[in-house]
UniProtKB/TrEMBL annotation, chains A, B:
Coiled coil: none annotated. PANTHER family: 2-METHYLCITRATE DEHYDRATASE, 2-METHYLCITRATE DEHYDRATASE-RELATED. Residues 4-248 form the MmgE/PrpD N-terminal domain. It comes from the Eukaryota. This is MmgE/PrpD family protein. InterPro entries: MmgE/PrpD_sf (IPR036148), MmgE/PrpD_sf_1 (IPR042183), MmgE/PrpD_sf_2 (IPR042188), MmgE_PrpD (IPR005656), MmgE_PrpD_C (IPR045337), MmgE_PrpD_N (IPR045336).
Length: 452, 452
C-alpha cells in the first residue's frame, strides 16, 4: 500500500496544514538551491551539457539559470541543466540521515514546470509542492538507507526521480491514482551509480532525476500507467534496489515527522563528511595566525575521522577541482593554509598549486568508529616540537550548529555574484526571500535575473 | 578493463570485418523492428506518450514513425516514441539466452540520430553501428544473466541504454575514451523494473533506454566524463545491478561469438515463453477442424510448461490486451478458438469476449522443470470422452525453427498495413529490404513513408 498511501497523502495535503517550521525550512532550501544553481551555472560540467544538448531543446518555456543571459529551454532540459548546475560544486543541501541532497532533483523539476504551465504558480503553492517532493524523496530514502547506498547507488538521484515526480505531480494537480502511476514511472528510472563520483556524471544524476520525475508526472497526467504497487511490490523499487527496507514505517510517518525540517546547508562545496575536518582546520588556521606559526614549518597533520570519510573522500592526490571534492586531504590543506574552503578553493589552479600540495601530502587520516559523522579531531606537529590539537564535536552546517540566515545569505551572494555581479546578487537575494508571498514564480525568476 | 575493452572494440570495428551471417541477421532485425515500430505506432500507449510529450519536442530532425503522417521531433523524443511503439505489442525480437529484445533500444536511438546528423548515413555504416550496439547490449546482458533478471530488472532496457550509447557513439565516431565515457553515462541510468510488466511503462522502458543511450553518446561527444571502469568497478554497473557476473569472459568473446546472429523473431505478439503453448494450440485448432470437434464441447485443457511460463505469464483473468500478453491462458484460448494469435487477437474486445473467456477458464497449467523454454505439451478433454494431445518440441520462432523470410514479410506487411495500407506496406517492405545498399538512411525513411 506504500505507493498509494504516498500518492494519497501528497495529493490531499494543503498549505494550511503545513507547520511554519516546514515552510520556513523549505524556503531556506529553495534559497540555498537557487544560489547553488546560479553559482554552478558556468562550471565546465554544466556548460558541456548545455552545449551538447542545445540542439535538442524544445520550446523556450523555462529558464536555464544563469548559463547565458536569460537562456530558456523546454521544461525538461531546463530541469536537467539547472539540476546539474545546482550540484556541480557539491555545495547543495543535505538530509543528514540519508545524505540525500533533496532540493536538487525536486526544485530543478518544479521550477522548470512552474514556468512552463499556462497559469501563474504562487509562492505558497510552489512551497507546498516542494515540500511534498522532498518528503517523498526522503521517506523512500530512509526506507532503504543504508543498504541501498552501500550497494553503490547514488541515493540523491535514485530517490530524487520519485521526489521530483511527486512535486511536479502536485503542481499539475494529478488525481491520487495518476500520482501513484507517476511514482511508478519515476521509480522505474533508477539513475545514479556511486562509481561516477568524481566525474561530470555525478551532477548529471541530479539533473537527470529531475527530468525523470518531470516526465513521469507529465506522462501520468495524460493517463500513462505504471504499477500501483511500484514501491512495495515483490519486484518493485524498494526490493530491487535494496536488500532490506522499512517502507511501511516510513510512509506511515508522512506528515508526522517532517524531513524538510531536517535539511541542512553546507558551508563548504564538497562532500559533507569532510566538513568536520575543514571546520577544524579553519579554526586551526586562525590559531596558527594568532601564534605566528606557519604551515611552511608543518611536519605532520594527523586526523581521526568517521569511517565514511575515508571511504568517500580518501583521494590522496586529486588532480583537479572535481577530484578534490573527494579528498579529505585537500579539504584539510586549504583550511590550514588559506583559512577557507569556498568554491574558489576548489578551482583547479588551487588544487594543483605547490603550496597546497605540500601541506596536503603531510596530512594522514585514520578511521575511528567511535566518532560521529559530524565529528573529527586533528593534531598538528611542527618543526621545533610545537603541537596543536583541535576537536570538532559538531561541524558548522550540522543540525546542532546550523548555518544562520546571515551565513546562508553570504553563501548565496558569494555564488550568485559570479553570474549577476555583487549588486545583482544582493538584489536577487532579497527577491528570493519574498518567495512565500509572491503571486507568480515566473515573475520571481524574471526579477531575480534582473528583468524590468 | 571491460569498459575500455568494449569501447575499443566498438570504435575500431569495420564493416569489412563483419561476417555476412551477422550483417544479414542485423538487416532482418532492423526489418522486424521497423514493422513492429510502425505496427505499434497508433497503439494507445504510444499515443499517450506522444501527446503528453509533444509540448517538449525540439527541432524536427527525426521521424516519429507512423504516428501521424510524417510527424517529426528532435532525435531524443523520436527515439523514445519509436522505442515505445516497437515494443508495445511485445512482438519484437528476442535474444533467447537473455530474453533481451535487442533491436528496440538500439535501432530506436540509431535511426533517430542518423536522421539528425548533418551528413548522410549509408546502409553499411548503419548496419555496423546497429551490430556494435546489439553486441554490447547482449554481452553485458549475458554477463549478469540470470541473477540480474531474477532480482527484478527488465534486462532489455537496463542493457539497452548501454547498447544504444555504443551504437550512437559509433555513428558519431567517438574516440575510444569518449566511447568509454558514453558507456558510463548510459550505465548509470538503470531503467526498468519488471514490476511494470502489464502496464504502459513496460514499453516506456525500451524508449527511455534508447533516449538514455543517445544522450550518453551526445554528452560524451562533447567531452562529458563518467568513469572508465563504469561496468566492472567495485560499485560499477555489473556489481550494483547483479549479485554475480562474468563480465570479463563475455567481453573477451566480442567479435568471436556474434550475438546478433542469435536473434530470433516472434510469430506472436506476447511474451516468448507463451509461444510453445500458442503454437501447439494453433495446431490443435486445425486438428479440431479436421475432426469436426468444437471448443464449445471442451471440458478441460491441461498444459505442461517450463516454470518461467507461470512466473511471467500466469495471469488467470486478464482484463485487456496489455494484461493478456501476460496470460498463457489467453494465448492458449485464442490459439484453440481462433487458430491464430496476431495483434488482432490481443485487442481488448477479443480479451473480454465471452467465447474466449469461456475457453480460457477451462485451461490449467503446471510447471515442469524437465521441459525446455521453447517446449510444451497440452491435453484437451471433450464431453463424450474425446481426448487430443499435442507436444511441441521447439516453438516456431525458436532458433531451431526460425521464422523464414516469407513469414517475416507477412508479419511486416500485416503490421505496417495498419498505418500505410496494404500497398504502402508492400512498398515499404521492398524499400527496407534494400537497406544494405542504400546511400542515405534519411532517404530510406522518406521512401518507406511514401515521400516522392
Amino acid at each position: 500500500m506504500a505507493t498509494q498511501q504516498l500518492a494519497s497523502w501528497a495529493t490531499s495535503l494543503k498549505y494550511s496544514s503545513l507547520p511554519e517550521t516546514a515552510t520556513t525550512a523549505a524556503s531556506r532550501s529553495f534559497y540555498n538551491w537557487l544560489g547553488c544553481a546560479l553559482g554552478g551555472s558556468r562550471h565546465k560540467t554544466t556548460t558541456r551539457a548545455f552545449q551538447a544538448l542545445r540542439p535538442f531543446f524544445g520550446p523556450a518555456t523555462s529558464t536555464v539559470l544563469g548559463h547565458e543571459s536569460k537562456a530558456k529551454a523546454d521544461a525538461s532540459h531546463a530541469a536537467l541543466i539547472n539540476g546539474i548546475a545546482s550540484h556541480v560544486h557539491d555545495y547543495d543541501d543535505t538530509h543528514l540521515e540519508t545524505i540525500i541532497h533533496p532540493t536538487g532533483p525536486v526544485a530543478s523539476a518544479l521550477l522548470a514546470q512552474a514556468e512552463a504551465l499556462d497559469r501563474d504558480v504562487g509562492g505558497e503553492e510552489f512551497i507546498l509542492a516542494l515540500i511534498v517532493g522532498i518528503e517523498a524523496e526522503c521517506k523512500v530514502g530512509l526506507a532503504v538507507w543504508p543498504k541501498h547506498y552501500d550497494i553503490g547507488w547514488h541515493i540523491t538521484s535514485t530517490t530524487g526521480s520519485i521526489g521530483a515526480a511527486v512535486a511536479v505531480g502536485k503542481l499539475m494537480d494529478l488525481t491520487s491514482e495518476q500520482m501513484a502511476h507517476a511514482i511508478g514511472i519515476a521509480a522505474t528510472q533508477v539513475t545514479g551509480l556511486r562509481e561516477m563520483f568524481g566525474s561530470d556524471t555525478k551532477s548529471f544524476h541530479v539533473g537527470r532525476s529531475a527530468q525523470n520525475g518531470l516526465m513521469a508526472a507529465v506522462l501520468a497526467s495524460n493517463g500513462y500507467t505504471s504499477s500501483l504497487q511500484a514501491l512495495e511490490a515483490k519486484r518493485g523499487w524498494a526490493n530491487v534496489v535494496s536488500v532490506s527496507n522499512d517502507l511501511d514505517a516510513q510512509i506511515a510517518s508522512l506528515g508526522k515527522v517532517w524531513e524538510t525540517e531536517k535539511n541542512s546547508f553546507k558551508p563548504f562545496p564538497c562532500g559533507i563528511v569532510v566538513h568536520p575536518i575543514i571546520d577544524g582546520c579553519i579554526q586551526l588556521h586562525r590559531e596558527l595566525k594568532a601564534k605566528d606559526l606557519s604551515t611552511a614549518r608543518l611536519k605532520s597533520a594527523h586526523a581521526r575521522v568517521h569511517p565514511l570519510v575515508l571511504e568517500l573522500t580518501g583521494k590522496k592526490t586529486p588532480k583537479d577541482g572535481l577530484q578534490a571534492k573527494f579528498s579529505v586531504y585537500h579539504g584539510g590543506a586549504v583550511g590550514l593554509v588559506l583559512g577557507k574552503a569556498g568554491p574558489a578553493e576548489y578551482e583547479d589552479r588551487v588544487v594543483t598549486s605547490e603550496e597546497i600540495i605540500t601541506v596536503r601530502d603531510k596530512i594522514t587520516a585514520t578511521a575511528d568508529e567511535t566518532l560521529g559523522a559530524d565529528e573529527a579531531e586533528i593534531v598538528l606537529e611542527f618543526e621545533g616540537g610545537a603541537e596543536l590539537k583541535k576537536h570538532v564535536s559538531h561541524a558548522v552546517g550540522s543540525l546542532e550548529v546550523p548555518m544562520t540566515d546571515t551565513q546562508l545569505q553570504e553563501k548565496f551572494v558569494d555564488q550568485v555574484a559570479l553570474v549577476l555581479g555583487g549588486n545583482g546578487a544582493k538584489q536577487a537575494s532579497s527577491v528570493v526571500e519574498s518567495l512565500k508571498g509572491v503571486a507568480s514564480i515566473r515573475d520571481l525568476v524574471a526579477r531575480i535575473l534582473g528583468s524590468p
